[in-house]
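Practice problem: predict the structure.
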Amino acid sequence: METKQIVTWESVLDNVMPQFERIARPHNQVAWKEENHFALQALTKNQMLAKCSVPSIQAALINVAAVGLTLNPADGYAYLVPEYNKDLKCQECALRISFKGLIKVATDTGSIKWVKAEIVKENDTFDYNGPCQMPVHSMDPFKDRGATVGVYCIAKTIDNDVLVDLMDIAELQKIQSCAKTQMVWTAWPDEMSKKAIIKRASKQWPKTDQSSTLHKAVEVINDTEGGFDPFAAFEATAAELLKLLQLDDPDLLGVGEIWAELSDKERETLWTAKTKGGWFTTAEKVLIREATAVYHQANEE
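Answer:
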């Protein structure tokens, strides 16, 4: 009976082999033979996983090809996990990407050389020096560091520029509150916090031909784990500003009004150089400065 089950799963997985190989071919990070083997191992060892719907198992394996992360448990980059779908009232298989796996995808894109995320505790000393300068983080790892107050991420680009992003505890708690399950956040709060800041920071990194793979990995994480993406607000604001800036006759007063309503942190994030993943060209930044002057002049009158 055990042999019959293995053959059945082999047949199920073989149905997606052509699609898997087509999707995996461009980046050449994973191979069907190995990932099929690891998937079969997981399905035969995990009874709950074996109860998942066939389409969800096949979709999870396709995601392995899309993000280029192996299911090899020795690497710990990604796992097939069972999740209960309350709407469909059945078990579904999902691809869960680890913090380590997300870092691998990020560096594989070629836009950054390395990335590191660290938790900041209340007894630490942390000095933030802006989005393009290394922060100074001092702490004693052998003493009680207190509760978590935030998390930050440092990435070095291929041009040796440094890009820094950070979240305070309120932002992390908002993301956690929107998670599909609290169990993962409760069990691994530091890893989930680091994953959250890397997801957001990645949207500011320089784009390459492989950036779509990283975007897909973030999409898979969001689909599997849920969560609020605070960076979406920045994208929406940037899009609104660009719409006004790119008119034949730029609406400088409108741009100035939007810019004036932003916080210093929001302006700083939006002002990141376009070559470093930001939104505005040098010419557009000149217009924003003019718009700010126009807005202040209009309000003085």
